[in-house]
């Protein structure tokens, strides 16, 4: 069989050529998930985003009516994704997708931490707006949703702060003249 022998037609790599240096892999090939390259804040942000999405489908408002008779179905509820909460759901999905791309080693030329912070800030603002607009009969999962939104916002701020601090230190180290600082010469252009 030609496929097993490693023979290939002109222009297409055979089975024996796969993985050898110099052979290009297709663009559709994923690099795989590498959790070691992602900061702890990004990992927790991703988990909090997934939990927030789940929480949006749980009842944020609940009203029970007492009819004087023991009826098991005398309560009505509305999820966090109802009304303006749909915007929260879309923002949370965008945040999880954005953070997931970093874990999936997708190369994007954009300020990752800044976009995460913008999405997280919007989640906090619109979650608070959802609570203000639909403030009647708030249920347990509304308070969990607020807590998760605040955790998401805090982690995004921490991530942006870490990113700014890291780049500032690298920029300062690049500006140090090696003849004035012998340590800078050993470090190279950046850490």
3D architecture notes:
This protein is mainly alpha-helical. The chain is built from 6 helices and 2 strands, in the order H-H-E-E-H-H-H-H. A two-stranded antiparallel ribbon has the order 1-2. Helix 2 (40-56) packs antiparallel against helix 3 (85-103), helix 2 runs antiparallel to helix 5 and helix 3 (85-103) runs antiparallel to helix 4 (112-133). The chain starts with a helix and ends with a helix. 22% of the residues are buried. Residues 1-30 have low confidence and may be disordered.
Stretches with pLDDT under 50, minimum 5 residues: 1-30
| Major sheet description | 2 strands, antiparallel
Name the quaternary structure.
single chain
The H-and-E topology, N to C, reads as HHEEHHHH
What is the radius of gyration? Answer: 25 Å
Cα separation of the termini = 52 Å
Based on secondary structure, the structural category is mainly alpha
Mean pLDDT: 77
Mass-distribution shape:
elongated
Sheet with most strands: strand arrangement? 1-2
Indicate the proportion of strand residues: 5-15%
Number of distinct helices: 6
| Total number of strands | 2
Residues in helix, %: 40-55%
